[in-house]
Amino acid sequence: MSRPPSWFRRLLSPLIGRGHGLARDEAGATAVEFGLLALPFFTIIFAIVETSMVFFAGQILDSAVNDASRRLRTREAQSAGETAADFRAAICQRLYGLFDCADTDKLRIKVSEVTAFSDALPTAPMACNEDKSACDWALAEAYNAGQASSVLLVEAYYKWPTIVNLPGFDFANLPDGTRLLSAVRVFRNEP
Questions:
Q1: What SS3 state is found at 41?
Q2: C-alpha angle 56/187/103, rounded to 5°?
Q3: CB 26 within 8 Å of CB 33
Q4: How far apart are CA 162 and CA 47, in angstroms?
Q5: β-pairing, 135-137 with 126-128?
Q6: Inter-CA distances, 142 with 39, 113, 123, Å
Q7: What is the pLDDT of residues 111-128, one digit of tens each?
Q8: Do the domain assignments include residue 15?
Q9: Beta-strand (E) ranges in 89-150?
Q10: Segment 91-115, tens digit of pLDDT
Q11: What is the dihedral of CA 113, 114, 115, 118, to 10 degrees?
Q12: CB 161 within 8 A of CB 40
């Protein structure tokens, strides 16, 4: 193989010298690596935050329903003449401001008396159309505190807004981009 003419070598020598220098230079390697890994890294971080918030909110709702139901179980609510609005307020004040209690489209509460523990089946809270593109509440709010020794079923459902809706990490289970949280308690009132 013949060598290129010397004038051609002299013309390309600055470019060849820079090419070797760029190949050895690692100053931008960190920026390139960050650019390649930033999207998966932040996707995982946001998924962890979203998962934590959903589980935290579910635990808060469950605890609030349990605490508010205790007043029904011990018959304090019945003797004080509490209403459905009072029971809703008792749940809402235990939600630490994380939930929007003023919006009845987000929080639904139903307290019903059942004949036996075996009959205590929660009702389907949502009704969706056939292609599941739209869902609406099927649960009608009700409040029946029962009498002494009656079995009560307390249900609370909340449409929790999801923050991160990334493909593969979407925690919404309703078409409007929210996640349905639920808390259910079944107990017998004290005699």
A1: helix
A2: 45
A3: no
A4: 11
A5: antiparallel
A6: 47, 10, 12
A7: 999 999 888 888 889 998
A8: no
A9: 107-114, 126-128, 135-137, 142-143
A10: 999 998 889 988 888 999 999 999 9
A11: -150
A12: no
Token code pair at residue 40: 């998966």
Over residues 7-24, the pLDDT tens digits come to 666 666 666 666 555 556
Residue 46 is assigned to a structural domain of this protein: yes
In the sheet that 142-143 helps form, which strands lie side by side, from edge to edge? 142-143, 107-114, 151-161, 178-188
Burial class for 101, CB neighbours closer than 10 Å (0-12, 13-18, 19+): middle
Count of domains forming the chain: 1
Backbone angles phi, psi at 119, to 5 degrees: -90, 0
Distance CA 184, CA 114 (A): 14
d(CA 92, CA 43): 32
47: containing domain = 28-188
Of 169, 98, 108, the residue nearest 135 (C-alpha):
108
Residues 107, 158 contacting (CB under 8 angstroms)? yes
Q: Is 6 inside any structural domain?
A: no
- Is residue 76 assigned to a domain? yes
| Helix, strand, or coil (residue 36) | helix
Asked whether the predicted pLDDT for residue 144 surpasses 70, the reply is yes
Provide the residue type at 115 as one letter: T
| C-alpha dihedral, 57 to 165 to 136 to 88, nearest 10° | 20
